Amino acid sequence: MKGKRRRRTTVGRGVPALALGLTLIAGLCVTATGTAAADDPSYAFRNPKLSVDRRVDDLLARLTLDEKISLLHQYQPAIPRLGIQSFKTGTEALHGVAWLGETTVFPQAVGLASTWDPALMKKVGAAVGDEARGFQQERPAGWGLNLWAPVVNPLRDPRWGRNEEGYSEDPYLTSSMAIAYGTGLTGGDPDHLKTAPTLKHFLGNNNEVDRTTTSSDLRPRVLKEYEEPAFRPAIEADAVTGVMSSYNLVNGRPATVDPALDDVRTWTSHDLLNVTDAHAPNNLTGTGSQKYYATLTEGNAATLKAGIDSFTTDDTNSVRTTTAIKSAVSTGLLKESDVDTAAGHILSIRVRLGEFDPGGGKYGSIDKSVINSPAHQKLARKAAADAAVLLKNSGATLPLKSSASQDMAVVGPLADTLYTDWYSGTLPYAVTPKEGIAAKLGTSVASSEGVDRITLKNAESGTYVTAGTDADGEVLKESASSGAEAQFDVFDWGSGIVTLRSAANGKYVGYNWSNFVNDQAQPNGWFVQQQFALEAQADGTHLLRYAGYETREPWWSNPVYLGPAGDDGTLGLVTKAEAARYTKDIVRSGVEEAVAAVKNKDAAVVVVGSMPAINGRENDDREDMGLAPSQEALVKAVRAANPKTVVVVENSYPTTLGALQKEVPALLWTTHAGQETGNALADVLFGDVNPAGRLTQTWYESEADLPSILEYDNIKHDRTYQYFKGDPLYEFGYGLSYSSFRYGKLKRFDDGYEVAVTNTGKRAGDEVVQLYTHQRVSRDKQPLKQLEAFQRVSLKPGQTKTVKLRLTTKDLAHWDVTRSKWVVESGTYDVLVGASSEDIRSRTSLKVRGETIPARDLSRPTRAENFDDYEGVRLVDESKVRGTAVGASADGAWLKFADAQLGSGAAKFSARVAGAAGKVEIRLGSPTGTLIGTAKASGTGSVYTYETVNASLSAAAKGRQDVYLVLSEGQRLSTFSLR
């Protein structure tokens, strides 16, 4: 369905044309004579009593074409003659306002979702929205209220570098959290917005490596059943005000020009403001990575027509964007009405934000006093505590005793630090795990980071790598000194990557494009230039390799090894042959220090995990999901030294824990949880908070359980808990409590099911009650289980509550590819309720009188993308504007169209094909089954030029059959029929 595109230059809904016309004429007249102020309240667009549409229409009518075009870039200039200030789209707000200074930093998004608590999520969203308002009031022209959050890409693969930004591998849980967070951000009134949140990243965005050139194949069922359900509900609920297009291609077409961007407008009656991701418009052209259009003029025109309103590119410089759009209008690629449409969407948001209302509208009085307020600090602590997931607790190791007489140790590389991610705000303060535990006990605790302190001695010259001693550090050199300036703490992050912190000043060593300097408080920056590798050599020495992310870029041409590059011993980049060979001498063993700290203690807490800028992040996927080798060794040593060892895993993704899961008595997972991390962990570890976080993703035993990260077809490749047939380390929805809960019998009520849940433990606690369904028999492959509803419920010891979970027959629908529609099949459905996707406590069945999917009718033109199964094909763009075709990656690639009714006999096969010369074989039963016809294609010379090919069919082409089309390499198939 084509998206709704209102013609903003026409009269708004319910507005008398004559009245609007007189308003416009009057306003234009006073402006022309200079008797009205630029912000004259007589302008209709400044009248809050009028409808949003009427106000937008009024303002559009006052703008020149150039002024309207100027609104289409991220940085919209002021229009002084109308008293309109500048406006910026895009303030990051993933788990707090980011990049504007100190602000309340909440847990990462995947942590927030682990609360399974939409009510809490809404409160967090409201706090973030308030703080965005506080910043904006301080600097109205520079800090915008169009927020780029939440991220709703389903977390189908835990190796995705941006896993921490999303909510869950399940689209229903994802959308539930997005609605809650978005409603908090907007204030809940779509006509009077606190902020204007934007869903990221539309569509099919779950890999970072080569993200601008890889294509996400989204067959119709995956699109309709998995991708869209993560985005659509928040838009339907008016919890967000637009989407951001993703960098990748979808079915061969850049997402920046995907016509689905306009189709989303049909999901709501309110205007949406759709934006591109940063610099994505430039990727489209011949000079960009995608090379989809020859010129920026063509690319920008296509982008606007596809449904984008605001171009995020070239930072603050809008010249290239506006020049290209002006050119597109003058050459006929765009009409002024196209510009009006996009500008109207933008102005609708600005009107609803109260920009043109007296005093800034409903939320105009919110000031910077809300930023990091005591109430928000308290909320951040609660969110961090409620997000923690107890993975293991054998022998009731937890909770720990919280008396001051407890003698404890807190060790590990994350024990006394907090890390932030790329989209985090600036921490106003940081309570580390060590500090939180010490505060809880009211006494000091023993501690060690458990990392080795080393020296690097040049095996040839006998000199040491040395760093500066002052706060700003100095350029690294080799010298005779072996003191503190020659000592470095080595943090192992896995995959061979380490960071080096100078013992001389406590700063990390990094590259500044010319030298190596110990001047960074933490690893940071886009290229994270504090990454190194110590490569062991056969003779026992090591080469020191620089491993900043820029070294992976195609434009990087420098060598990557370190060695003396000047007469004074200054270290520089040299070839491997020129690299210095260093002996790595341990000054202080991290493991030995940690073991000494935990021996004879009442309990030991080991905090291990990830560095968000290194272990996967934007532009870089994870290579593995395990703990770093040195972290594993540390945990094993501490466990051997103290049997009461609690391991806290602090990272942003499912982790393959290996033998550690069996060896330690207690495991707790938390994401990087913001400023209150330490206090929240202490609350959970000592039992002030009963843990009730639940996993929002499957934790796999190993990477071998996963297909390629580029395989987006969950159904065929058995991804996520819905289709995974193996045994997970921890299943979706899993999490333990200090209490126990008993479930009663699952009972049907009008709108769903209810179950009595009783707290049978001695502590008050929360249980997350989860409702799943499974379709027993279907024409199509169905999920093993599918989450339909959930509720986090608080129960005192002995208390019973009846939990109602909504489920309607509409929720049981799946996408029928034979007719391109939603269908609820007749049959029996299992209804399951429990504490996780595997821990089912009660079940019943539901008999549904729905539809029986009829046999396929291939006599009508059938889209090739509507196959039932396939091998050796890719989904590709049928044209640069709209439509999906199927492309063969190799000879013998095939498509299956199951249960086709050929009747008494089909005589002719016809198909639209493009691309290479070859043949299309029509077979029955299998890709090598009975051949009933062959259509030969001469080749069109272009993947967008189609020819019709035909073939006569044999007498075997009759009855109900599974039809297979076998293709030649390089062919594209759009539609076909058998008649």
TrEMBL record:
The keyword Ion transport does not apply. Keywords: Glycosidase, Hydrolase, Signal. Residues 860-979 form the CBM6 domain. Residues 1-38 form the signal peptide. Pfam families: CBM_6, Fn3-like, Glyco_hydro_3, Glyco_hydro_3_C. Transmembrane segments: none annotated. Gene3D superfamilies: 2.60.120.380, Galactose-binding domain-like, Glycoside hydrolase family 3 C-terminal domain, Glycoside hydrolase, family 3, N-terminal domain, Immunoglobulins. SUPFAM superfamilies: (Trans)glycosidases, Actin-crosslinking proteins, Beta-D-glucan exohydrolase, C-terminal domain, Galactose-binding domain-like. SMART domains: CBD_IV, Fn3_like. One of its GO terms (biological process) is xylan catabolic process. CDD domains: beta-trefoil_FSCN_BglX-like, CBM6_xylanase-like. It comes from the Bacteria. One of its GO terms (molecular function) is beta-glucosidase activity. Catalyzes the hydrolysis of a non-reducing terminal alpha-L-arabinopyranosidic linkage in ginsenoside Rb2 (alpha-L-arabinopyranosyl-(1->6)-alpha-D-glucopyranosyl) to release alpha-D-glucopyranosyl (Rd). It is not able to hydrolyze alpha-L-arabinofuranosyl-(1->6)-alpha-D-glucopyranosyl (Rc). This is Exo-alpha-(1->6)-L-arabinopyranosidase. It comes from Streptomyces caelestis.
